[in-house]
Amino acid sequence: MTADRIIPKSFGIARRFILAIVIFSTALTLAGTCLQLYIDYRKDLSNISRQLAYIETSHLHSLINDIWLFNERGLEAQLKGILALPMIEALRLERKDGPELAVGKTTSRHLISHTIPLSYQHLDKTVPLGTLHITASTDHVIQRMKERVLLILFTQAVMIFFISTFIFLLFYHLIGRHLAVMARHASALTISNLHEPLQLERSQGCPQDAKDELDLLVDSLNSMQAQISDYLTERRQIEDTLHEQATLLEDEIAQRQQAEEELNVINCSLEERIADAINELRRKDTLLLQQSKLAAMGELLNNIAHQWRQPLNNIAVSIQTMQYLNKAGELSQEEMDRDIKAVMDILFYMSGTIDDFRSFFIKDREKREFVLQEIVEKTLNLLRSTLDDKGIMVKVEAEADVRATGYPNEYAQSLMNILNNAHDALLERQVQGPSITLVIRQEGSRSVLTVSDNAGGIPQQILPQIFEPYFTTKGPSQGTGIGLYMAKTMIERNMGGTLTARNTAAGAEFRIEL
């Protein structure tokens, strides 16, 4: 593709540029010519007006006197004198008392008429004498304007031609020829010759450091060519790299597909193993729960044995006393009824203990709302004998009507495991004045129960491990290590609460939130 096809000759920048100059210069010349002609025309009309004013000031007085004195000869001489003035073509005098008098003849095409009233001042009275009609010719004005138009148009045309030619040559030398070079370079530019820079045809005497806007444009184009060339080179390298990576990726995909097939085979057996492992974990959880219940039952049976020891002794003493008094014949019916009632009260108390023991391990079928203080009292009643026997003081601080939603028996079992843990710690460390404090309160929408002791706390290094299954600091014969684990499981997993432990200044504190 050639530069001529890119920029047609009829629409070349230089041609449009010179055409715009010619049109603008012509329009400006015409406007200037019209303005000059208008000024000259007004000036010539002004000269005619001055001529008429001259007639009024110089000839009018003599003309009026001749009319007043009826000096026909002098009057005719006055009119001929006025007619001899430049641009005056005809005169016509209309008199009040006398015939009309006319001199001159109108032969011009362009005329100006002027009328002057004539009057005479006689004895402080103005006497009208007539009217003087003056006809002036403007043909010479029009002719002079035509001559000036032709002269101005000719001189301006010559000037426009030379100026336009100079501007065209200057534009071509400074801009046009360089634009042509740039157009040819752009039309011949391809991917294969991007490395060839654009160079303008500068004259030999032009200094190298005197760069103009075209030089800056050329530098920008050359820089852009270099950047495009670098970009294409980099793109080819990237495409080659991508092709290599695509090949590697295809190999990797094939290997991955093979690995997936092998993995599917492994997954089939792995799913079976996972299912077996889950079943085994569930079986172990069930076993742990059973072990925890058995351990709790053992603790409760031990507590019940403590609780029953004194009542059974009281029953035995009452029966022996009644038997002795009966043999001696000293047992009255009133005394026998009183002793039997006392024995029956003890038996009813022991029967209630059995009911508490049985209900303690009944599994709750669904969550329900319960009062924390009732659960705490129920649990403490089962442990009261053991705690009192060891001299452990139990203190309960409770806000009124603090409620929670969950499984009451599991909550009680968790609390029993925590109390047993505190009981064992107090006995193991032989604390003077052992005590356990239970605090029940409402914090926002959650119920909180804290159980704290004064056994000195849990060693910091094992504190994070106390809720793990089978973790214990006691010997094998003293604990299973599943009590706290099951307590945390029942509180958090089954009821959605939290069970945490921390050390205080006096000992350990367990916190249950629901």
General description of the model:
By secondary structure, the chain is α+β, with helices and mostly antiparallel strands. Among the domains are: 9-178, Beta-Lactamase (2-Layer Sandwich); 363-513, Histidine kinase-like ATPase, C-terminal domain (Heat Shock Protein 90, 2-Layer Sandwich), CATH 3.30.565. Helix content is 61%, strand content 16%. The protein is built from 10 helices and 11 strands. The protein has helices spanning 3-6, 13-58, 60-68, 72-83, 139-188, 213-328, 333-360, 372-389, 408-428, 483-494; strands spanning 88-95, 101-104, 111-122, 125-137, 368-371, 393-398, 403-406, 435-443, 446-453, 498-503, 508-513. A 5-stranded mixed beta sheet has the order 6-8-9-11-10. The protein has a 4-stranded antiparallel beta sheet with strand order 2-1-4-3, covered by helices on one side. Strand 3 and strand 4 form a beta hairpin. Helix 2 packs antiparallel against helix 5 (139-188). Its main location: membrane. One of its GO terms (cellular component) is membrane. GO terms for molecular function: phosphorelay sensor kinase activity. It holds the Pfam family CHASE5. Keywords: Coiled coil, Kinase, Membrane, Phosphoprotein, Transferase, Transmembrane, Transmembrane helix.
